[in-house]
Design goal:
The structure holds two protein chains of two kinds. Chain A is mainly α. Chain A is 66% helix and 2% strand. Chain A has five helices and two strands; from the N terminus they run H-H-H-E-E-H-H. Chain A has helices at 10-33, 41-69, 80-109, 131-166, 170-174, and strands at 115-116, 122-123. Chain A has a two-stranded antiparallel sheet. In chain A, helix 1 (10-33) packs antiparallel against helix 2 (41-69) and helix 2 crosses helix 3 (80-109). Chain A is elongated and about 50 Å long. The two termini of chain A are 20 Å apart. The chains are: A mainly alpha, B alpha+beta. At the A-B interface, helix 1, helix 2 and helix 4 of A face helix 1, helix 2 and helix 8 of B. One protoporphyrin IX containing FE (HEM) binds at residues 23, 26-27, 30-31, 34, 48-49, 52-53, 55, 100-101, 104-105, 108, 115, 138, 141-142, 145, 148 of chain A.
Chain lengths: 187, 350
């Protein structure tokens, strides 16, 4: 990259917030649907599967854009340990965004359930039925799901800390709002 | 950047706000997950209510735990096309996989002690699209709602005889099922039983017309009534031995009959039968051609979830299929994780 970007590109910001909204929805639907026997169970699991697969497609697009467009640098005065933490946590978030839908799909395949999404779209099984594989993927989907929520909370706390306490312009790099940054003599 | 000289208090205020946002989010998550609502009827609580005092049947289904696999064909006669655009109702032969079973959580139950007999069935279209169902032999279900089913399980599990009395007072619909249970004749064969969907579903045909239906698999074998005491003498597994021998000598058949609801019929309540004069359409014949023991059989690791439906069939306002889907999923998760408690046989099937 010749010039380091100041902010994430608009399409990156759009994807960040769209996916953030969808993933938070996925996490709540996930724990909500497995704890209910009401008729809502069926639409919830249908949304969970459909949105989950859509997110898998989106994260691939997002990663491609990230590799192509890069990201703005973190503030120079951020301690190295914090910078490392930020990088690692972002890596983990990307990892979870890729792995969670794959686990969800694999778990259904390994249980010999047909995977039918909204609109009757059927995803062919790429794994044979297997008790052992189903159990492994199921446990991983459940525990990584909870870990994902914890990580999102941490990420949210860090973002708010940057925006409200440090006021160091990190939030502005991904803020969904058009920025008045030219007016601010920052950095 | 933090502005120099900015009072610490305001930072502290923001930190408190951040903590509040985190706490609020975590609480909302916990609430959604039911962790803060012990009264919510969850699949876990339903499974706990199904679990016998002696403990869960590890590696087995949490209900209808005793069963035997079958394979065969569904021969659609084409009459169903008028009702639903499901591919398996188009005239033709479609492979089936199924399971005869007993309505008990005990995989070692003595056959003659279990009143409810059931069938899990999966019909596959040529392109692999599946229709799964799980049906039982009584003409009505025991209760009107999944909550009442939970109450029934809890009451039936109590030693105190008052518990069942209180349950029947609160759920008078139980009387029809109780009357069937007391008076209906017993038979000596899975092949002589009808298997009823009880739950209603909505069929949609190619024109988009929708109708609420229930269906039954009616045996072509003539049922012979046999006293329960007589059946008890036949050994703990007589049903499995009988069906194995019977299918070995000849395939067994059931006629699939769909019953169409009139407007106003109780589609949401499987404890209430529809009037006898409702229109019935024969849509095909189930032919059971081969029996295999469950341990190494093809039905073992299938969840006959009644919401696995082809295009052209969907759930109705009946609350049971959703509740069943949620609980069967959990039962499947558990039994798959416990597979080592129910090991497959040493020799693989050829
Ligand atoms: C499910 C929810 C979320 C996920 C999966 C997620 C994921 C990510 C990822 C992977 C990055 C790194 C971008 C990159 O370097 O390529 C990022 C950056 C960022 N996110 Fe999120 N995010 C979520 C929600 C949120 C929320 C709710 C906020 C704020 C309230 C937020 C604020 C930020 C900020 C400020 C950055 C920029 C960090 C930087 O400049 O390096 N995110 N997010
Ligand atoms: C970003 C993607 C995803 C997230 C964040 C996510 C999250 C979750 C969470 C939090 C749960 C509840 C776990 C529990 O507490 O028991 C769950 C359950 C489940 N998810 Fe996902 N999920 C995702 C994608 C998918 C996909 C793509 C599928 C399938 C196509 C799927 C299928 C399921 C199923 C079937 C369950 C119920 C598991 C069971 O208990 O049997 N998920 N998911
Ligand atoms: C809310 C009510 C119900 C609950 C909680 C319930 C619970 C269960 C459970 C946990 C299983 C084992 C599933 C598995 O591990 O694969 C099962 C199997 C079965 N249930 Fe239900 N059930 C309910 C209603 C019904 C109704 C209304 C019918 C019939 C119309 C029915 C018929 C069957 C049959 C035939 C099986 C055995 C399927 C097989 O062979 O795998 N159940 N039930």
């Amino acid at each position: 990259m010749s010039s380091v970007p100041h902010r994430f590109a608009p399409v990156q910001r759009l994807l960040h917030w769209l996916m953030a909204l969808c993933i938070i929805t996925m996490l709540f639907i996930g724990v909500g649907m497995v704890s209910t026997v009401t008729p809502e169970y069926l639409p919830l699991i249908l949304i969970h599967k459909t949105l989950g697969v859509a997110l898998l497609v989106l994260v691939l697009v997002r990663l491609a854009l990230r590799l192509h467009l890069g990201a703005p640098p973190l503030p120079a005065d951020l301690p190295p340990a914090i910078k490392l933490g930020a990088r690692l946590s972002h890596l983990l978030l990307y990892g979870l965004m890729i792995v969670m839908p794959l686990l969800g799909l694999g778990m259904l395949w390994a249980a010999a359930y047909p995977v039918v999404l909204y609109g009757g779209i059927e995803i062919p099984a790429l794994l044979p039925q297997s008790d052992r594989v189903h159990t492994l993927l199921w446990n991983t989907h459940v525990y990584l799901g909870l870990a994902f929520f914890a990580l999102v909370l941490l990420h949210l706390a860090a973002a708010l800390f940057h925006a409200l306490v440090r006021r160091d312009g990190v939030f502005a790099t991904i803020s969904p709002l058009p920025q008045r940054e030219r007016m601010k003599p920052t950095e | 950047m933090n502005q120099p000289g900015r009072p610490e208090r305001s930072s502290l205020g923001w930190l408190i706000l951040i903590a509040a946002v985190l706490g609020g989010s975590a609480a909302a998550f916990a609430y959604t997950a039911g962790w803060l609502a012990p009264g919510r009827l969850t699949p876990d609580r339903m499974i706990a209510a199904l679990t016998p005092p002696s403990g869960p049947p590890l590696g087995h289904r949490r209900n209808h735990a005793k069963g035997i696999c079958f394979t065969g064909m569904f021969e659609a006669n084409g009459n169903g096309v008028e009702l639903s655009r499901a591919k398996v109702l188009v005239q033709g032969r479609y492979p089936v996989l199924g399971r005869f079973n007993l309505g008990t959580a005990d995989p070692n139950a003595v056959d003659a002690t279990v009143r409810v007999r059931g069938m899990g069935l999966q019909i596959s279209a040529a392109d692999g699209e599946e229709w799964r169902m799980a049906m039982i032999n009584p003409p009505v279900f025991a209760v009107s709602t999944p909550e009442a089913f939970h109450d029934l399980l809890v009451a039936a599990g109590k030693k105190d005889p008052e518990a069942m009395k209180a349950f029947t007072r609160a759920n008078p619909e139980f009387a029809s099922f109780a009357a069937w249970s007391k008076a209906a004749p017993w038979t000596g064969s899975y092949a002589e039983e009808p298997y009823n969907s009880l739950n209603s579903f909505v069929f949609t045909n190619a024109k988009g017309d929708e109708r609420a239906v229930r269906w039954s698999l009616v045996p072509t074998a003539e049922p012979t009534s046999i006293a329960q005491a007589e059946l008890e003498k036949r050994g703990p597994d007589f049903l499995e031995r009988e069906i194995t021998a019977r299918v070995q000598s000849a395939p067994q058949r059931w006629t699939m009959i769909t019953t169409l609801a009139d407007p106003g019929d109780p589609t949401a309540d499987p404890s209430r039968a529809w009037p006898e004069n409702r229109r019935k359409v024969q849509v095909g014949t189930l032919v059971v051609q081969r029996i295999e023991p469950e341990r190494d059989g093809p039905c073992r690791d299938i969840n006959f979830d009644p919401t696995v439906l082809p295009q052209g069939i969907r759930v109705s306002d009946d609350p049971f299929p959703a509740a069943r889907s949620s609980v069967y999923r959990k039962s499947y998760d558990l039994r798959a994780a416990e597979a080592s408690d129910y090991p497959r046989g040493e020799v693989a099937k050829p």
